[in-house]
Amino acid sequence: MSKLVLGMVGFGVVGSSVLKAILANGEIINARAGKQIVLKSIVVRDKKKAEKKLAELNVIDTNANITLSTNVDDILQDSEIDVVIELMGGVEFAYTIAQRALKAKKAFITANKAMLAYHRSDIAPLANGLPVGFEASVCGGIPIIRVLKDGLSANHILGIRGILNGTSNYILTQMQQFGKNFATALKEAQNLGYAEADPSLDINGGDAGHKLLILASLAYGIHAMPEDILIEGIADITPDDMEFANEFGYVIKLLGIAKKQDDEVELRVHPSMIKKESMISKVDGVMNGISVIGDYVGESMYYGAGAGGEATASSVISDIVAIARGESAAMLGFSRPLEEGKLRLKDKEKIHSRYYIRLYVRDKPGVLGEVAQILGRHNISIGAFLQKETDEKNIATMLFSTHHCYEREINHALCELEQIDSITQKPFKMRLEDEYE
Ligand code: HSE
After folding, report:
1. CA 310 to each of CA 39, 41, 86, 193, 315: distance values in angstroms, whole numbers, following the listed order
2. How far, in Å, CA of 137 to CA of 117, rounded?
3. pLDDT level of residue 60 (50, 70, 90 thresholds)
4. Is the CB of 207 under 6 A from ligand 1?
5. How far apart are alpha carbons 202 and 181 in whole angstroms?
């Protein structure tokens, strides 16, 4: 059997799981690949630590004969290595590795969503027929890249709604189901090893944004950057918001949303209230889920582990197998650029949605009327309403849902509300995503 020789950069949780899977499931992987998959070298930061890891994995007993190095050139300049696998993280150095691997005529695999969010459209033309795999970059073990690239290639993708970040989903689930506050739920996620020590990208929507942008390239041929799209996180969500959601039949999820309408695509990441009955609302805890609507296939839904060594390694190995089989479809799924039907990114101000609003107000006569008047002046019609007293004397919480309006209108209304004396804190808004429109 001929061989496919791999060099890996990074030997953390995902890297060691890739090696573990190759050792444990080598026979079935090789049979599917039609080649013997050989991991020849790993570039690591700390050789001593890596040697210990290899010993723990019994690599010495299995005669796997893996070379450890601290110099990436040892892989990039090794003519025997067919595929470079980048599992190191970071943006610019990882991009340099991609460039150098492709220049050296090696296939390239990465799990690095942040790097792809910025550089996917730079890497695609460099590939020039060489395979570039990134199945592990979005939603860990869920094969959503292949779904969009191959499985749904007959379709115009009308919409995507995804829970793309496990850590934030864990936090929101704990808040909603067990009444915890944000800080407690975050601490728990960190203790369980879901959130990073610096979890900012998990909770500010950045990580989900990176993943949505990758999906948008595959679905629409749109190569937007993180700065181009609306990204909001979950840090400002309070038990009051959860209470309103529970009362009116919603759950709160951090969603990555793509919607195509005519020749425009809307891309946004933000916490959303979604109906309890919808399938995606049932994706709880650290799990990920994505619903995709295609014009021919209708809605299909994908659920699974979005993070973790083994699930992510499963996706990395699917790329290795595809390369061994000689699959080399265009990296971002379009063999030639879309001419007719080329899509544009929709202006954020033109988002049309229902909204949830939370206000803290002075509990005195006439305040509700004042608030309703301002909303009305901005063309915003109130749907549901809940008012509660707070622990603080003479301060009440007003919680509203609205009917559809434009983002521009709600922003102007909230700005105006913020100026009036009766409002004691900055107003908070969240979008309601009832269904695909
Ligand atoms: N921090 C990410 C998450 C890991 O929580 O989903 C997988 O990308």
Report:
1. 17, 20, 16, 14, 9
2. 10
3. confident
4. yes
5. 17
Mean pLDDT computed over every residue of the chain:
94
Query: Residue 147 C-alpha to ligand 1 middle, in angstroms?
Result: 20
Domain residue extents for the chain: 3-141+310-338, 145-305, 350-432
233: left (phi over 0), alpha (psi -120 to 50) or beta: beta
Within 69-220, where are the H helices?
A: 73-76, 92-103, 113-127, 144-146, 166-178, 182-191, 200-203, 206-220
- Say if residue 63's pLDDT is above 80: no
Measured from the CB, is residue 315 less than 6 Å from ligand 1? Answer: no
Q: What is the pLDDT of residue 437?
A: 44
* Fold entry, domain 3-141+310-338: Rossmann fold (3.40.50)
Query: In terms of Cα–Cα distance, which of 354, 377, 374 is closest to 422?
Result: 374
**145-305 has which CATH code?**
3.30.360.10
- Rounded CA-CA distance 233/271 in Å is 7
pLDDT band at 340 (very low <50, low <70, confident <90, very high): low
Residue type, 315: S
Q: Give the contacts of 50 (CB within 8 A, at least 6 positions apart).
A: 11, 42, 44, 68
Q: Is 205 in the pocket of ligand 1 (CB under 6 A)?
A: no
- For the stretch 377-407, pLDDT in tens is 999 999 999 998 888 888 999 999 999 999 9
Measured from the Cα of 170, ligand 1's closest atom is: 5
The answer to whether residue 277 scores a pLDDT higher than 90 is: yes
Tell me the pLDDT band of 65, cut-offs 50, 70 and 90.
confident
Q: Alpha-carbon distance 160 to 349, whole Å?
A: 20
Q: State both tokens at 128.
A: 């020039």
Pairing type for strands 83-86 and 230-231 reads unpaired
- The CA distance from 362 to 368, in Å, is 10
Domain range 350-432, CATH architecture: 2-Layer Sandwich (3.30)
The pLDDT of residue 342 is 80
Tell me the per-residue pLDDT of 46-59, one tens digit each, with 9 for 90 and over: 999 999 999 998 88
Q: Work out which ligand 1 atom sits closest to the CA atom of 167.
A: 5
CA of 165, closest atom in ligand 1? 6
Ligand 1 pocket, residue 165 CB under 6 Å: yes
Q: Ligand 1 centre and the CA of 407: distance in Å?
A: 29
Query: Which residues are catalytically annotated?
Result: 211
- Look at residue 25 and tell me whether its pLDDT is greater than 70: yes
Residue whose pair of structure tokens reads 């038990």 in the numeric block: 239
What residues does 274 pair with on adjacent strands? 251
